[in-house]
Design goal:
The structure holds 2 protein chains of 2 kinds. Chain A is an all-beta fold. Chain A has strands spanning about 5, 10-15, 20, 25, 30-40, 45-50, 55-60, 60-65, 75, 85-95, 100, 105-110. In chain A, strand 10 and strand 11 form a beta hairpin. Classes of the chains: A mainly beta, B mainly beta. The interface of A and B includes residues 41, 42, 97 and 102 of A.
């Protein structure tokens, strides 16, 4: 079945550092890929998404490229801020059906 | 657009009582909604798929009689935790899949309901 493997944290960075959170997937079809962010005590918010190979999703300085050859969708940001501290989930959805999530990566950014 | 609400956002109940959680799609219709459970510092676990007008589809290991799901309309699904016990304490999150599909097959998530059973 479909699954997502995500780099586990926690990840602690200093402000303005470069961020990479690795995500790889296994899927039988051609899924859409997502990154969600969860702030403390809140639900999930969509951060970015991509629907097909080589698509790049981007939002708020975060980027991720759908790499079919490596079955990856790594999240990157060039310069993190304290406000980026949250838990990040990689996820895939095959034709809009149930979504499979990675384990989540907790990011803490220190001033 | 594509807003999903949950009510209540936070509930405390006594052991043995039942708690109902509502999930509403505010500005779109959703034949299908999903219920997830999230333990502290863990990922989301799909509990069941809620289908309007028919029975919910439960994931393996989820007790149907314990977690009752009713998808009464195209904008409302409810999850009732029956005879709640402390081990049912968790963060419950619903999501809705719009009937009018966009290019990303995206689900929209509610803000979650934190259940604490004393």
């Amino acid at each position: 079945g479909n699954s997502v493997t995500q780099m586990e944290g926690p990840v602690t960075l200093s402000e303005e550092a470069f961020l990479t959170i690795n995500c790889t997937y296994t899927a039988t079809g051609y899924p859409s890929l997502f990154w969600y962010v969860q702030y403390p005590g809140e639900g999930l918010q969509l951060l970015l998404k991509a629907t097909k190979a080589d698509d790049k999703g981007s939002n708020k300085g975060f980027e991720a490229t759908y790499r079919k050859e490596t079955t990856s969708f790594h999240l990157e940001k060039g310069s993190v801020q304290v406000s980026d501290s949250a838990v990040y989930f990689c996820a895939l959805s095959d034709q809009g059906n149930d979504m499979r999530f990675g384990a989540g990566t907790r990011l803490t950014v220190k001033p | 657009g594509a807003v999903v609400s949950q009510h209540p956002s936070w509930v405390i109940c006594k052991s043995g009582t039942s708690v109902k959680i509502e999930c509403r799609s505010l500005d779109f219709q959703a034949t299908t909604m999903f219920w997830y459970r999230q333990f502290p510092k863990q990922s989301l676990m799909l509990m069941a798929t809620s289908n309007e007008g028919s029975k919910a589809t439960y994931e393996q290991g989820v007790e149907k009689d314990k977690f009752l799901i009713n998808h009464a309309s195209l904008t409302l699904s409810t999850l009732t935790v029956t005879s709640a016990h402390p081990e049912d304490s968790s963060f419950y999150i619903c999501s809705a899949n719009p009937d009018r599909r966009g290019p990303y097959n995206e689900q929209f998530f509610g803000p979650g309901t934190r259940l604490t059973v004393l």
